[in-house]
Protein: UDP-glucose:flavonoid 3-O-glucosyltransferase
Amino acid sequence: MGSSECHVAVLAFPFATHAAPLLSLVEQLSAAFPSARFSFFNNHDSNSGLFRGRNPAAGKVKAYDVWDGTVAGEALVTHEEFIMAMPGNYVKAIAEAEAETGTKFGCFLTDAFLWFGGDLAAERGGVPWIALWTAGACSISAHLYTDFVRSLAAATPTANGKHRLDQKLKVIPGMSELSIGEMPGEILAKDLQAPFPGMIYNMALKLPGANAVVLNSFQNLEPTVTDDLRSKLQKVFNIGPMILRQAAATPKPPIISDDHNCLPWLDSLPPASPPAVYLSFGSGLTPPPDEIVALAEALEAKRAPFLWSLKPHGVKHLPEGFLERTKEFGKIVPWAPQVQVLSHPGVGAFVTHCGWNSTLEAISFGVCLICRPFYGDQQINSRFVESVWEIGVKVEGGKFTKDETLKALNVVLDSDRGKLLKENVVKLKGEAMEAVKPNGSSTKDFQELVHLLNGYF
Ligand code: U2F
Structure:
């Protein structure tokens, strides 16, 4: 496909699990357009991690570092520094890459956060701008309704002057279970011009100008929300779960790095053992010390096998003697091969912050969730898990306490409700697998994306 060689500028957002799914999309597009070249603009740290020991898309991707927003030699402290350097840092790196190759970019593929992708595309004669939203349809939809949600919150003050955050968003298609208070903090931010909320708000304003928005989700997971999105954006391509689509497309399974022997440990659990609990809070989060203690106490009381991905700075808050007392049934590692862990038949529950990738991975492998959302889209994802898909529970009270965590573990692992949640998640897993089959909705959406790009490449 693609008669002439197209040079695509790929603009990644370097934090959390943003750049990896974008690189995965690049690899999928490269397979469809073997003559296309991709320049991957990202910060130095993220590029080093992503490209270390790898040659994505058989050498068709070249990584370019963009300026971090810091004084030379200083480490980046906050995302804000990086955001404040945008878009100038990308613009400079792009101009240098164009000067190096002597050609202008013929397409912009960006993380949706990078709202200026459309402006850069317009400056090059209206080449396409394709944006990847790395989370669910439910959260991007929420952002597109920012002005509405803010006006609703402002119009309903309570007696003490505070906004009524428990009001449900009944009029937004597919969002009737969500309350205003569960919206991402950026939507309700006092100052929409502050760096992070400003970036997200600009994104909501600019995305309708994108030629296409690509989602790592699948049609049957969020049908009403997605249909509404399709009415607001030029094109929506729902091409996930990417991990399942990639697995379906790659006959050779990837090499799994399991430095801490999580998989042999799961294999070694006796066949009669109760299902194991897997705990992880994504790429960067560690629960606060009191919640680590509460989690540990609940796990010790439950005595189900557990595998906990916890960074060393979290381990130091575990109760004294906990590791020794639980060594027969528990394992703590700084990083686990999560996809393989969740696909292990011995795992019965996933305690999570409900980042989108974690949520989708749990669905893809049919594991029920126990949700403790922290920020961003995580509240929305958790609400969908508990009340829309009914595949897990939120921890009551919004944070881990020993009693509420134990209660959630008992519901998921040992109750009739738990059985129903399991049935529901297995059904959704089936739908996810259907979506990535040759005639499935995600496969078709990916083919349509390729068809759209074929007109430009
Ligand atoms: C941000 O999400 P996070 O990166 O914090 O969390 P996830 O979206 O759940 O992604 C975590 C990924 O890291 C992997 C795991 C996921 O693919 O399989 N992982 C692992 O392999 N081993 C471990 O021990 C721990 C994690 C943000 F915080 C979220 O709110 C957003 O939804 C998300 C996407 O935009 O980005």
In short: Residues 262-434 form a domain with the Rossmann fold fold (CATH 3.40.50.2000). The longest strand covers residues 37-43.
